[in-house]
Amino acid sequence: MLTAIVLIDAEAGKIPEVAAAITEVPGVSEVYSVTGEVDLIAMVRVREHDQLADVIADRVSKVDGVLRTQTYIAFRTYSKHDLEEAFALGLED
Q1: What is the distance between the alpha carbons of residues 69 and 18, in angstroms, rounded to a whole number?
Q2: What is the DSSP letter of 90?
Q3: What are the TM regions of this chain, as residue ranges (predicted)?
Q4: Less CB within 10 Å around the terminal CB: N or C of the chain?
Q5: Does domain 2-88 have CATH number 3.30.70.920?
Q6: Can you give the C-alpha Rg of the chain in angstroms?
Q7: Dihedrals φ, ψ of 81, to 5°?
Q8: 81: part of which helix (H) or strand (E)?
């Protein structure tokens, strides 16, 4: 599974609509409205490298109200939450 973190600048008056539209794009798992230099951060999770272009360049960047995207591809995940879920699959407490 490949994970990309996409920083998104959006038109100020359309941020909620842009976020909602991006959540509908297959491959987008979460969209966060954030403070700071960007308006939104989207998490994209796909199985193959070529799918990143389909999701980010062909879909997310073309959502009405998206002004600019900047993408970071994750090499490894370091998350206590994710590790706990992986070890708990199929097990009952």
Answers
A1: 13
A2: T
A3: none
A4: C
A5: yes
A6: 15
A7: -60, -50
A8: helix 80-88
